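Q: Here's a chain of 151 amino acids. Please give me its 3D structure as tokens.
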Amino acid sequence: MRLLGEAFPLLVQVGPMQFTEESVREMAALYEPYFARGERYATVSLQPRNAKTPGAKERKLIVDWVTSARVAEATKRLCVASATVLPNPIARGVFTAMLWVWSPAVPVRPVATIEEGLDHCFDGITRAELKLPKPEAVLRQEILHALRGVI
């Protein structure tokens, strides 16, 4: 589990090869410093290539964390854009259907590629008039380089 924050206000969450109770706790802990910062951000979430799909227990743990009052409030207040990378079209369809019955604190866009996720989040950052630490093209290249071999 990693949370790349070098391009803040863009955060890139790379999930584990397999979600467990421990990795969900780790994910929650990785976001805490950004919630405490109180600065707006956008986030792209993805799983490494060949990662196992979270089981029912792990999905429930993730949903319980995301929908907890404190996390939902912080997300609604701070997150300007969110994308989840799901290369598999069936997984994207299932996620989209899930969004019909679950309204996250901030709209989450299911996308097929990291590039689409970056596009969505950089658009959100631009709309929110947040300042990037480097030009978008440079950050995009650095992120894709950092993720080489992962996705």
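Q: Can you summarize the key feature?
A: The mean pLDDT is 91.
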